[in-house]
Amino acid sequence: MFTGIVEELGEITAVENLPDASRFRLRGPVVTEGAKHGDSIAVNGVCLTVVEHEGDEFTADVMAETLNRSSLGALTVGSRVNLERPTSVGARLGGHIVQGHVDGTGEIVERKPSENWEIVKVSLPADLSRYVVEKGSITVDGVSLTVVDAGPDYFTISLIPTTLALTTLGLKQPGDPVNLEVDIIAKYVERLLGDRAQAPAPVHAPVQEATK
């Protein structure tokens, strides 16, 4: 599990195309400290498994399903990426519960800079709009953010200078894709309420009158 608090801005150093997959080599001095084979690292919000680790670089295999459902397929050598290691038990939950399982992709629609922050509008797939609410949580390229405004096919986020400087969201331009993960709690609530609505009404045994 992750929290959406990006630890560092990494870089793609090599891409190897495999049958129905790709192997990425990534540089990230912070997240590779103590890393070993089998560890998980979130790359732009996608939970990947470390295959090899050498120095400040690691490799990870990305299956076709992940390439099709996320924006990782658009990454090339030199692309900057958000990196985060899983949170440890007992650590502070700085962002919100993030699984690293991308629900879909959106696009940067527009950016409105101001003196101390920047408002960014992001397109939203129709099947995800019901999970996004004003002041709710959403993960964009692995960054835990608060929704400012939620529309039927878009949402807006407010980015502080730290987020702009230390994550890919400071580099994204209109038309660029971003990975989206909605709040897992919202999906669980929807499923539980749906199951309850479809459940058959309980059958009660008839109450017998007491005999005198």
From TrEMBL:
Pathway: Cofactor biosynthesis; riboflavin biosynthesis; riboflavin from 2-hydroxy-3-oxobutyl phosphate and 5-amino-6-(D-ribitylamino)uracil: step 2/2. This is Riboflavin synthase. Lumazine-binding repeats lie at residues 1-96, 97-193. Residues 1-96, 97-193 form the Lumazine-binding domain. It catalyses: 2 6,7-dimethyl-8-(1-D-ribityl)lumazine + H(+) = 5-amino-6-(D-ribitylamino)uracil + riboflavin. It is an enzyme of class 2 (transferase). It comes from the Bacteria. It comes from Streptomyces anatolicus. PROSITE patterns: LUMAZINE_BIND. InterPro entries: ATP_synth_asu-like_sf (IPR023366), Lumazine-bd (IPR001783), Lumazine-bd_dom (IPR026017), Riboflavin_synthase-like_b-brl (IPR017938). Catalyzes the dismutation of two molecules of 6,7-dimethyl-8-ribityllumazine, resulting in the formation of riboflavin and 5-amino-6-(D-ribitylamino)uracil. Its EC number is 2.5.1.9. The lineage of its organism: Bacteria, Bacillati, Actinomycetota, Actinomycetes, Kitasatosporales.
